[in-house]
Amino acid sequence: MMRGSCLCGGVVFDVRPPLRDVVACHCTQCRKQSGHYWAATSVPHNHFHLVEDRGLAWYRASPEAQRGFCRDCGAFLLWQPEGEARISLAAGALDGPTGLHIESHWFGEVAGDYYSPEGPPAAPTLAETLHGSCLCGANRFSLPGPMGAVWSCHCSQCRKLSGHYAASFDTEEEAMDWQARHVAEHITDGGSARGFCPDCGSSLYFRASDGSFSVEAGVIDNPTGGQISQHIFVADKGDYYTLDDGLPQAVGRD
Questions:
Q1: What is the DSSP secondary-structure string of the chain?
Q2: What pLDDT band is residue 190 in, cutting at 50, 70 and 90?
């Protein structure tokens, strides 16, 4: 048996092997909700058991499927297609070694322009103004572009929340011009705040305890003018993926 959970413990589940190998999805919906792109394995319903569901909420982004997230911390956890006796679950939510690997990439043609699904990122695009939103549209904002350098974080918190690993860029919080705002915040043990949409679970921003501020790259519409520049906290990365883009890797923050 393998266990998985959100960051705050409001949703906990057990899964019984075998698990399907991981599919990385770059569709707009997964990028908005995860804040980068999503990576999921899958099991039949009779191999999946909810241990704790007090935080579980569902958002229907399309008639084809529902998306499960924690309403308390915003972690994107589950994808349930209609009419199927299987459920997909975030690989990043699983505790400990998984023994899995990424078997395929879906919707690579609509990936964010700040990274490549495989290999080195492309040259940055031009973007004078950035436009961002959550999946359901309850949050919409703009800020000056370009996105610039993007940090990919593989710490356990970011993996639990995003379902894979996070990608964000630094900006001034005062630079964000909100056209619509409906945000919940989860305060971590270290005093940082992670902002997300309580209606659809989209990850929006991170405010560190020292006041520094970053926006999740996946909620920004193309073009972004951004480019992944470094991977941090790679000592905590998941075992089911490799980093093949040739960019610098840091064991911790630096």
A1: -EEEE-SSSSSEEEE-S--PPEEEE--HHHHHHHSS-EEEEEEEGGGEEEEE-TTEEEEEEETTEEEEEETTT--EEEEEETT-SEEEEEGGGB-S-----EEEEE-GGGS-TTS-SSSSPPPP---SEEEEE-SSSS-EEEEES--EEEEEE-SHHHHHHHSS-EEEEE--GGG-EEEE---EEEE-TTS-EEEE-TTT--EEEEE-TTS-EEEEGGGBPSP--EEEEEEE-GGG--TT----S---B-SS--
A2: confident
Q: Residue 252: which pLDDT band, with cuts at 50, 70 and 90? A: confident
Quote the pTM value.
0.95
Strand order in the sheet with 226-232: 184-187, 193-196, 203-207, 213-216, 166-170, 148-153, 226-232
Instruction: Please state the φ and ψ torsions of residue 47, each to the nearest 5 degrees.
Output: -105, 5
What is the sign of the dihedral through the CA atoms of 110, 104, 77 and 243? negative
Distance of CA 94 to the CA centre of its chain: 14
pLDDT of residue 55: 98
What pLDDT is attached to residue 154? Answer: 98
Rounding to the nearest 10 degrees, give the CA dihedral for residues 11, 58, 163, 37: -170
Q: What span, in angstroms and rounded, lies between the C-alpha atoms of 38 and 188?
A: 22
Flag whether pLDDT at 244 surpasses 80.
Answer: yes
Q: What is the mean pLDDT of residues 60-87?
A: 97
